[in-house]
Amino acid sequence: MKYVVVSGGVISGIGKGVIASSTGLLFKTMGLKATSIKIDPYMNIDAGTMSPLEHGEVFVLNDGGEVDLDLGNYERYLNVTLTRDHNITTGKVYKQVIEKERRGDYLGKTVQIVPHLTNAIQDWIEKVAHIPVDGDNEVPDVCIIELGGTVGDIESAPFVEALRQFQFRVGPENFALIHVSLVPVIHGEKKTKPTQAAIKDLRSLGLTPDIIACRCSEELDQAAIDKISMFCHVGPNQVLGVHDVNSTYHVPLLLHDQKLMEFFSKRFKLDELKLSSERIAKGQDLWTRWNSITQSHDRSFQKVTIALVGKYTNLQDSYISVVKALEHSALRCELKLEIVWVEASDLEIESSVTNKINYHKAWGSLCSADGILVPGGFGTRGTEGMIAAARWARENLVPYLGICLGFQVGVIDYARHVLNMKTNSIELDETIEDPVIVYMPEVDKINMGGTMRLGIRPAVFQESTENSVLRRLYGSAPTVMERHRHRYEVNPEHIDELEKSGLHFVAKDEKAERMEVFELKNHPYFVGTQYHPEYLSRVLDPSKPLLGLVAAAGGKLESILAATVDHHSDQAKGPVTDF
Ligand SMILES: *[C@@H]1O[C@H](CO)[C@@H](O)[C@H](O)[C@H]1NC(C)=O
Ligand SMILES: *[C@@H]1O[C@H](CO)[C@@H](O)[C@H](O)[C@H]1NC(C)=O
Ligand SMILES: *[C@@H]1O[C@H](CO)[C@@H](O)[C@H](O)[C@H]1NC(C)=O
């Protein structure tokens, strides 16, 4: 096992995650199996209870683990399936050490940060790095470890010390460090001092950089590279410039051009690994496909606008997986994606009085979008606006995708405006007499934490849904596995009425009791999913419901469907909206 640690100096939030996942991707293009671990120097134990306003989105894993967005980044780039143990936090390690101490595992010895905590960290890393993540049972060859925060913080000190020891535990030929730094441009001049200081800090803690990746708004010139090389005691080939490029998907190309893999081949003696020719061919194929989508992205000029109707539109990080899945879909459709953020509450009728300008602006954006997406979310604020957005899309034949809460508001709109019911979701109005969205029976109403339907579960396509657009996008699969995170569902009492009036529940759970997907007849694309398809989207394998939305919005649904490999039947399919 080779370990590559990616740490950061100077300031946080400069794209350490993208550099780390791009490095992992490059290892994969050489035929290696890559995995990753994120270390977060926080005391929290899991992200489920953390506010999306402060931390951005909660990302859900197959195992139901609620983590933050960085693990999503690795899953998307490396096409791997991670577990909740792939996220190490200070809180988790302390908890483990304290539990061991309580059990008497330390035989009454004094328990200390060094060595007990630092050993626990190293054991955790070694254990998790060996978990197969590729859907087969093979142990990965390389593990990318992203160390959150900046080196030198109090918070990360135990982890830095653990990693310092770890390089000797696994041997120097199996351990490398990429340090991400910042080269600010001030009055047109690139300043290398912050990088020099950061590397000095790093060395004083016993870690030696193998690669210094310099984030810079401009391309790094040879003079700057030479200067950093000189003052930081590394060769010029160990200094990489990572300037702002067209998209984050171009970062692997940038690192590749600067011969990152040639460095690692020598450093890790990769030719001694003797990979099978099949693995090498697979890696090459990945590289070819990655190159071709990024290049076609540069060449595509046809635009597609998607209105994202949400609640935290001031904090766009809360929808990062949805945005990424839209990007993957646009790459596949060769369209330039433009996302218009629409604050749901601005669409509500009250805003036309209290907040006229925003009201008209919001409706203007919604009406001019090619497609509308209402993503998941919690709480009541803005939901009437979301219902209005779903109604607009339904009545005006604008492609619509509702995810989780967006699925539920689609159902509410239909019940209200097609079935003329006076209804709502019990989540949004506790006093409503005839709710069309209810608590799931297994959910504990009082104890909010940990009572959701979480993680990967099947959605089973129902009989005679062969011509469902979504099912065809999934390659006509009879069952799809997707990740869930919800505590409300469609009221079983109203399903018959809804179906009879045309809202077709094409997929349900394995007992056919819980509604998973709706699709509307006689509409170009009106789809809702109770599950969160965005969590399983991959750069080269976009999530199908989102792909359908982008394709329908960009006028490419027919060609995408035609290109979809049908794994499950070879029957001729009817026109798209007829099933
Ligand atoms: C890991 O868990 C901690 C604690 O909940 C959280 O703060 C952090 O954001 C998580 N990180 C990842 C990458 O999931
Ligand atoms: C991603 O990995 C899965 C196996 O886990 C594989 O079936 C699929 O083809 C991979 N996708 C891409 C785009 O490589
Ligand atoms: C960025 O995109 C433009 C066109 O959109 C293209 O001409 C240019 O070559 C791209 N740059 C890189 C570094 O790929």
From TrEMBL:
Keywords: ATP-binding, Glutamine amidotransferase, Ligase, Nucleotide-binding, Pyrimidine biosynthesis. It comes from the Eukaryota. GO terms for biological process: 'de novo' CTP biosynthetic process; pyrimidine nucleobase biosynthetic process. CDD domains: CTPS_N, GATase1_CTP_Synthase. It catalyses: UTP + L-glutamine + ATP + H2O = CTP + L-glutamate + ADP + phosphate + 2 H(+). It holds the Pfam family CTP_synth_N. Residues 315-542 form the Glutamine amidotransferase domain. Pathway: Pyrimidine metabolism; CTP biosynthesis via de novo pathway; CTP from UDP: step 2/2. Residues 2-270 form the CTP synthase N-terminal domain. Its EC number is 6.3.4.2. GO terms for molecular function: ATP binding; CTP synthase activity; identical protein binding. GO terms for cellular component: cytoophidium; cytoplasm. The keyword Coiled coil does not apply. Catalyzes the ATP-dependent amination of UTP to CTP with either L-glutamine or ammonia as the source of nitrogen. Belongs to the CTP synthase family. PANTHER family: CTP SYNTHASE, CTP SYNTHASE-RELATED. This is CTP synthase. It comes from Sugiyamaella lignohabitans.
